[in-house]
Amino acid sequence: MDKDISIKRSNPGLPIKAHPHAKLLSALVALSLLSCGVKPEPLNIGKDACYTCKMTIMDKRFGAEIVTKKGKVYKFDDLNCMMNFSNSEFEEEEDIAYRLVVDFAHPEKLIDATQAFYSQSEYVKSPMASHFAAFEKKEDVNTFNKELEGVILKWEEIEEQFK
Q1: Cβ atoms within 10 A of the Cβ of 83, count?
Q2: 128 vs 68: CA distance, rounded Å
Q3: Does residue 2 surpass a pLDDT of 90?
Q4: pTM of the entire structure?
């Protein structure tokens, strides 16, 4: 025998009131969802390993990172390793949220790899011998190239070299 279970309101003519803290709780939930967004991580020099070659990232002037739209972070010790990973198609291009490189002039800073200026020179002693240094500002790459006689490249040219 099924029983009809229903909730009866004491005064059916009045609207149901929300809990007094409902707006605050909603705001906190929304804020927590935003804080869980996809974002780059700093490279931990001497601790993080390169995803491609498995070597420990040791030189703070070089390094790269790919972050997927799902939040997976791949870290690399050299542009060479990041490009080899990209060409492997392990992650689909449309799934990548960030492609970052270390700014050689400001090693504590990760910059957008697709907007960076690159210097290629035999005098750049990068970890995996790519001979590339990345810079956020054109002035910095120009200064660097005066000293080391490097060739200035943009992202599209880097991609061509690693195909």
Answers
A1: 21
A2: 24
A3: no
A4: 0.76
